[in-house]
Amino acid sequence: MDLRVLLSLLLFSCHRGVASGSRILRNQPAGLSSNTTVTMTSESSSDECDLVMNRSAADRCAFVKNTPDCSMEDGFINYLYTAFCLLPPNLTPLAITLCIIWLFFLFVVLGLTASKFFCPNLSAISSTLHLSHNVAGVTFLALGNGAPDIFSAMAAFSHPHTAGLAVGALFGAGIFVTTVVAGSVALIKPFAVASRPFLRDVIFYMGAVFWTFLMLYRGTTTLGETLGYLSLYVVYVLTVIISAYIYNRRKYSVNTSIQNVSHVPAEFNSSDSSDDDVPCLTGGAIQQDYESEYRPLLPYSESTSQILLSSLNPVDHRKWRRKSWRWRALKVVKTPLEVLLLICIPVVDPDKEDKNWRRPLNCLHLITAPLVCVLAFQSGAYGEYMIQGQFPLWLLVLLLGLFLSAIVFCTTTNDCPPKYHSLFALLGFVVSAVLISAAASEVVSLLHMLGVVLSLSNTVLGLTLLAWGNSIGDCFSDITIARQGYPRMAISACFGGIIFNMLLGVGLGCLLQMVKTQSDVQFETEGLLTWVLAGSLGLSLVLSFVIVPLCQFHLGRTYGIFLLVFYVIFLIVALLTEFGEIHTIST
After folding, report:
1. What is the share, in percent, of the chain residues with pLDDT greater than 70?
2. Number of domains forming the structure of the chain
3. SS3 (DSSP) at 289
4. Contact at 8 Å (CB) between 505 and 153?
5. Where are the alpha helices (DSSP H) in 158-222?
6. Interval 200-215: pLDDT, tens
7. Which letter, b or e, does each residue of 182-205 get, where b requires 16 or more Cβ atoms within 10 Å of its Cβ?
């Protein structure tokens, strides 16, 4: 995918509990022995808050206030209180409608922060570290694509009532991407897929799904098994790097003349090239040529105030004139949010001549970025923290930011970025990660409220709303890449990203909970629906593993239609299972 996709391993520093397939029944007290377990379930009879809809409308507010299970620890807003107490009972539908609108806004925040700020900074970090395209693709690229999924899973895993969202979201997103997204790419641009990279990705993903299935089936996982689960992604990364190295060596040995491309055998142009690197290698040059066309002929220097105002303008007037009215309408809606994010998050662009150095704005970032981290980290848990009970933490951070900002402003110029400018990419990475985590926590809390009000399980909400919301950006970007003539890149992003999401979502979620509780993790599945999810995902991968080679690795429109029909059938079966129309026969 484009820059939005080239960013991805971010999750390790700013987030709490994550997982993809279950839910903690109860947080056990600290100090448990290593032999104890943390029970995780997607659906539990002890979730007393689900009983709120059984009460009369007049009693629901009091029930929410007096029931501990209705008190969400994560998130800035208690959505159950908002739905049942903030407005009169007859206006509860209005509260739910407003919450749904707020949910779509949160998805916009997630997508905008990831694509405009998180991904570019990860790309800059990758360039600064001089990572190869293959290494960056399976690490930063996967993280950029999967950031919303991973952070949503981590946020869901951290609370007893919402971990079921993680199972549905990661499994549901996996099915959505491998069927709807891959099928749409095949419909729009039929092509011959790279054979060995395709088989490699499908095999590793099937291994991840099977391992996850075993963990759910056995009902428990240990620290050693979790570390082994995480190491599977390390093996995948090493496999990609080694295979790319071997491929490049073979290609170099066969290609006797660099200028004469016709001497390269066809196999290197079709079956092995997993990463159509042309956009990645030429994107910066194209951008620089585009900008140079509009450069003033005579030297021109903007004032500090002009630089600040132009830096805070997210609208490109040249692009505005070329785009459709739908794009313009959406841009008008997103512009206020983009301005706020521009004020808080620095962005380093290695493709630009000045690396996107904006002296007044970057100095402002030294004040706003640390302050946003303090106020947003763990949903504002440190916003009111007092140092030794007397001095607020946020004020100390503000004073330090003012001090650093003054030093940078006095020791730099508007025209030349300082040598340490790349550190702003790290700052932007951390701030955008914190904001994505905070937004993901709000999404999880809000979906839990909708599940309670609509009497839907967290797994269904995860495989529908949460999976769609986190994957819709990938869907559009993959389809766009396919239309531009790079369908192989789109397919590679489909499978590479979800491998990362599955292994890191489940693995890190279990690991963080083990560290937090000093105990093993035990799973309790949500009955038949969990097996429908796992079985459908495994079946789609097996069918792709069999059908694509039989079609000589050509993904045509027939295969695309087949994948779309498969997803529709899966969705119907999952919903029928949720509403009890499909159930196991009790003996």
Report:
1. 71
2. 1
3. helix
4. yes
5. 163-175, 182-188, 195-218
6. 888 988 888 888 888 8
7. bbbbbbbbbbebbbebbbbbbebb
Per the CB < 8 A criterion, the answer to whether 464 and 456 are in contact is no
Query: Tokens 């079946």 label which residue?
Result: 539
The answer to whether residue 130 scores a pLDDT higher than 80 is no
Could you read off the pLDDT of 523-568 as tens digits, one per residue? 655 667 778 888 888 898 898 899 989 988 888 888 889 999 999 9
Which residues lie below 8 Å from residue 265, measured CB to CB, with a gap of 6+?
Answer: 254
We report the CATH number of the domain holding residue 162 as 1.20.1420.30
pLDDT at 400: 94
Taking the C-alpha atoms of residue 103 and residue 124, their distance in angstroms, rounded to an integer, is 31
pLDDT tens sequence across 305-354: 888 888 888 888 888 888 888 888 888 888 999 999 999 999 998 878 88
* Residue 559 counted as domain residue: yes
**pLDDT range class, residue 143, cuts 50, 70, 90:** low
| Residue 320: Cβ within 10 Å count | 11
Residue 376 lies in a domain: no
Phi/psi at 211 (5° precision): -65, -45
Query: What are the E-state strand segments in 371-478?
Result: 386-387, 391-392
The answer as to whether 289 is a domain residue is no
CA distance 561 to 584: 31
* Residue 350 domain boundaries: 49-250+318-357+417-579
What are 497's two structure tokens?
Answer: 């990203």
205 located within any domain: yes
SS3 content of the chain, % helix, strand, coil (to 5): 70, 5, 25
